Amino acid sequence: MKTKLIFLTFLLFGLLSIKAQCNPTITSPRLGLRTPNTILFCSDENEILSTQAFGSYQWYKQEWTWQTPNNNPWVAIPGATSQQLTLNGYNDQLFYYKVEVTQGDCTAESQAVFADGYMYGLPAMMSTYTPGTYQEVDMGVVNVCKGASVKFDNVFPVVYENHTWFKCVPTTNAPFSGDPCVVTGVTGDTLIATESGKYGFYACTEYCPSQCELLDPFSFVQLNFGEWDFCGELGTGETKLKDNNLKVYPNPTAQLLYIGKETDKAYTKVTIFDMFGKLVMQKNDHKYNQPIDVSGLTAGNYIIVSVAVNGTEYKNRFIKK
């Protein structure tokens, strides 16, 4: 009887051991290097996902969305039934991945990992003007008072590193020696413009230095500095100022965010990006007195881009607590 009890004990521990081993995890060379459970890899490279050895495998993917919860279905990847899965930088980003395995009578799924593509979003530029010193005369064309300045920023400085700034639209995407459009001596993500020109930039990603992007020429901004009629002078010699800022409040916020004022009435589109350039929220036909619920966003800094019904575009930063 004692021998049978010992045998049954060893058998039970053996079965428990088999069950304990049916617990798949996903590994890859760059998983979690920047963000937990996230893989960042360059668009011209592949990344290999692996799991432990089991009896059988089936890999699944789910398309990313800014909505919470993510209601996109998990889809079995055809032919992905081995211990490893190779992801392609051009086609397989902005998806979640998991693997289902079997071992004996045990079936289990791994935790999902995310193949992120925010490092490769197209660049965007923010223009900051001193109220009262400028007048937008057309889309992307602004008259600026002589002696004032305009600040240009790459909206996603975390994504990009080395910059080349232009004061006219270049003839080639990549800058070349002697290019008359290049603003010499400025390689950061900010430029202060004090003379007329058509401004934009070319920048290389920090994570993938070989991947560089030119701001869409349609997004270049034409500045015309001069003595314009609206450039009145006060007795102190200071330029007259008028309120032309978009109100964003409360800032910081933990849940609800409001934008604009009663005189603005409505916005055709409101878009929110995180500081890595990832689109996290978008609303159409937004009224100034309607709250935007940002409670689902993680704490941090964000860019909110609002387009008024008259076509004016505002870019503001806010902090999610």
UniProtKB/TrEMBL annotation:
NCBIfam families: Por_Secre_tail. This is Por secretion system C-terminal sorting domain-containing protein. It comes from the Bacteria. Keywords: Signal. Residues 248-314 form the Secretion system C-terminal sorting domain. Residues 1-20 form the signal peptide. InterPro entries: Secre_tail.
